[in-house]
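Researcher: Batch entry, complex prediction.
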Amino acid sequence: MAKKPVKKEDPKTTGHSWDGIEEFNNPLPRWWLWTLYLTIIWGIAYVIAYPAWPLINGATPGLLGYSSRIEVKNDIEAANAALEGLNTRIVEADLTAIESDEELLNYAKRGGAAIFFTNCAQCHGEGGAGADGFPNLNDDDWLWGGSIEDIHLTISHGIRDETDYDGRVGDMLAFGDDQMLEPEQIDILAAYVPSLSGAEVDPAIAEEGQALFLDNCAACHTDDGSGDVFVGSADLADHIWLYGDGDEETIRQTITHGRKGLMPSWTGKLTEAQIRMVAVYVHTLGAE
Ligand code: HEC
Ligand code: HEC
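Model: Structure tokens for the complex:
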């Protein structure tokens, strides 16, 4: 197709023509141009003010010194500062008074649950249900006492943790391994111990067993086997067993080899506020 001559009169065209379609050469609209200029200025200002060009480690810092990491850090600090008041109150309060202060109680229970989940659940089970050798913390049966002070001491300093001299001590002796009792005597005791919690046993064994028990065991477990929180000797007269389920075989193992359940000390690993929170959490477990 023949090229049309470019028209000289208005409106001006660029001179391009294709299939008779020509392109006007109008100036760009002002508002459009200004928007373009503003975005360019904005872009340059942004690059100067904020972190922009990637470098090997990080990016150009920008004049304002802004950093999303610093912002997050500030946010965390602000949140911590807000909690600092509660933490101070919980540390300064009387242990027994924490649970009667609604605000502290709620804070401690919520914080304590999170601390428990992270630090304690691997041994005590989620929600403190326990496992073989790891006591259930939901029931009202306590080896070392279940008052808030007792629980606080147990958590602060642990049980049989040799790194903490302020912790709980008291072992179930290895009567067999250390040859304090003959295997036959241990058999009699293993058969006798279930009777402390009401199981039927042969009267001859009961008599012999009781004599052996009073001689060898009552010092720690008390005469009726109900245990003593000062040495952490388990209550043998309830139906709750730390090891096994009250079967003769497990009891024989316990008497022969002894037991030394180890609960770590938490002083230095958790703050005093955290220890108090998790103590309140444990104390209120099962209470609702
Ligand atoms: C490494 C395993 C382990 C971890 C982790 C652990 N515990 Fe224990 N805990 C034990 C054992 C084992 C016992 C029982 C010790 C015994 O036989 O006397 C125990 C006992 C206790 C007792 C005493 C129970 C009673 O009947 O008197 C409390 C309370 C307790 N733990 C709370 C906690 C809390 C709270 C945490 C987390 C901060 C925690 N434990 C973390 C192993 C653990
Ligand atoms: C020096 C103190 C002491 C003496 C003596 C002692 N015990 Fe123990 N016994 C303990 C302690 C402490 C525990 C808890 C061990 C643990 O928590 O790991 C325990 C635990 C047990 C358990 C485990 C209970 C459970 O819930 O699983 C049995 C069974 C037991 N003792 C029987 C005996 C018998 C039988 C004798 C006498 C031959 C005896 N004990 C003598 C301190 C003693």
